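[[Per-residue structure]]
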Amino acid sequence: MIMYLLMMLTAAIVSYGATWGARFAGNRLGLFQPIRSRDMHSTPVSRLGGLGIFSGVLVALVVASNSFFVKDIFRNNDAPWGILAGAGVIVLVGVADDLVDLRWWVKLIGQSVAALVVAVWGVRMTIIPFVTESIPLESEMLQIIVTAGLIVTTMNAFNFIDGLDGLAAGVAIIGGVAFFLTAYWVHRNAPLTDFSDLATLLTAVLVGSCVGFLPHNWFPSKIFMGDSGAMLIGLLMASAAVVSTGQITSGLYDRANGIPTIIPILLPFAVLFLPLLDLGLSVIRRTARGRSPWSADRGHLHHKLLDIGYSHRGAVVLMYLWTCILAFGGLAFAIFPWPVILAIDLAATAVMAVVTAWPYLRQRRPGRTAGMPE
């Protein structure tokens, strides 16, 4: 645990400093995009924050490859470097989009290239997990296609929720911590001689980089992570999920104090539920209107929260709370009796549903007229 936390701290320190440098460079050189109608800010802000996050990831992985315990992850294993190469590609694509606003199809090609780099030289899906029985993917080409598709989907999901100051970084931190604790707990309690794990390291580094970035991005934001940062988070989160899913058939999860095999299947979806929900609703909404699924609009979940009366910070905190319930509620199934956790999760979900809808319900309560003071 100590070495993972040290790598997390390394990523946080580097990310904080590098983000400050990106802020300075962006402001000094005037690297801003015009303010759009859907934007929540009224003054130009640099979108180069992804460079700070990537710097934290890069330095932490290089340090890890030469550090006690975690360096075993890199021994005779090119997967970390394949993931890092794919991350470098997507950061370049994202920075280009943040500076010149690429066409959606150009960005999709860039995302596909980055995902293919990870799938060919990094990690791959070898099974499609189901609750009853997993489906093996025998074809190498099919493994690459499924892995690349998962990574592209996750990158777009995180890119879609990156619309409020601190939202994407905070969701990544909360979900990443839940993922990190699960991966670490499984390996620490399994009868293994080597407890080092790539998924645990990736989530530790990701959380650390986002922690270093968040102080610069909290409302009112001094810098945005841009597409480069949001897509990088999605790529790393998806890569960690692929690593964990590949460990199901090894029996690792079965041997870790009886942890249910379904946990590594459900947890990534629980962590990514809000981004994936927003992505799905956006595609349906835009397609129904005859528009491209990648065309921008002001209909995301965070926009709806603002529309019903939440403040900027209030909407972000509410999304944090939902992520906590989903991520840690899923994690709890691995440790405590499922009937108890299910009851607690349902109760927490019901309370949060009322809290979420409260501003809207208050506006529509009988006897309240427009303009009436609160």
Remarks:
- The first helix runs from residue 2 to 29.
- Confidence is low (pLDDT under 50) at residues 255-259, 369-374.
